[in-house]
Please model this.
Amino acid sequence: MKTWMLCCFLSFAGLLLHGQNELVSEGNLFEGEPYLCMDPSNSQHLVAAWMGIQFNNKVTIKSSVSNDGGTTWSTPTWQAHIVPTYSSADVSLGYDANGSVFMCYIDYDNLNFAGGKVLVRKSVDGGLTWGNPVEVLSIASCPNQACIDRPWMSIDQTNGPNSGSIYVTNVNANQPTIVVPPYHPYLSVSTDGGQSFHSSALDATGFLAGSSISQPMASPVVTADGRFTALYPSYLPSQSLLPRLIRAQSNNQGQTMTFDVAYQGQGFGTTNNLVKSGPLLIAHPNNANQLSYFFLTDVFGETDIAFIETTNDGQTWSSPVRINQDPVGNGKIQDLVWADYASNGDLAVCWRDRRNASGTGYSVASEIYCTVRNHTTGIWMSDFSVSDQQVNHQAILEDSGNDFMNVILANDTLNVIWGDVRSGSLKIYFTKRGIYDATNHITALPVSDVRIFPNPFVTEIVLPKNYYGLDYYILSTEGKTLLEGKIDQEKLSMEELPKGTYHLLIVSPEKRYQYQLVKP
Model:
């Protein structure tokens, strides 16, 4: 939730498919907090939303659509306020299993917090137009709590009994003169496709958030078997002498909840109050037992990106693992984390990184870095920059706003959207990057005793039997995946490929094998 008003105008430029950063917005002062979603049945259909100014309307939520993977975008549309003097913030997007898109955001009195609501709108044409706003939660329903800040939306895309259920979590505003503790995360649920919502505090006796954590933000997901799941922080000495991370779950659309402790101890969060530190829970799309939770921590010497994970449905969670791979204790802080699972279980993480800056602390130059963990080997790639350049710090980054970025990993392609100040003002940039692109520092590991033939080839190649059962990728020279699958026979057909040069990447649990192929 933001308490400022900015003047800007935003339009979309074309997006290159790989590597180069493309300017998404062209406002002169501020383009804030982009969100990106992808049609689960069509990776070329993207919907983006963000905060921007519409003349005489303060900050509004704007959106645009691409049907060609980001090469071209529709003319942006904007959402009218429910009260003319209100402002909007904190947009998120999501698809249901039927192909409808939903937009969730807040519309509120950003001066006095005298009114405001969390809203959801629905689009049945892929985000080109949006229906009337539906109230999710009103500030009037939670006196002395201002309970409408930072709504996160998660939608059940499974084919189970709760398919189409919409879950929205949010928290009280950071307004200490208005909000009276104890603090709570909140949950709102729609069981009728976004036509109506019912709301309540998410925490419960024995698992209360307490009065010490001023904004106990919950991060929600729907697991592969259709369970609502959220993690939120808790510290209440009568419950535990140590801070805890609580998992809340429901199999029946929030009618009843179960709770357990995902983690207990120190190490979550940072003492640096400038960093953008929102945590994020993500779920493996095809494995209901696997969840990952990303956060900032100071335990490695400075503010770093870390995560914990469960692969057995929360029976056990890992200890915190540091994600960014710059030297420990170098004084370079990182923030603004986002992550996503691909359908095969590859795990992508991106963040704002300062390792290459001169100096230490928050107010130094930064880049956007990413890394990917292979689902077969469990090995993280060397982390790599997706920014074209280092971006010098500006004071606007210390204000509310620019609190999150967004990442989608589709097959082997990263889609990353964020805000930086390289142009002199805060604007939104987008990049598409193949995770096996040579610029991502992937080391090719060919072996001399294995031969791929014929090469050059006309219609097919012959693979050695010791590659059976491994995953393969046929990549263009730009790093785009053209063919992929599992090797289950001796010959691999590539008749559909046009003449040109290609890379064959074969992934084993121990190594990655890469070969250059030519079709004359």
Notes: The CA atoms of residues 194 and 221 lie 17 Å apart.
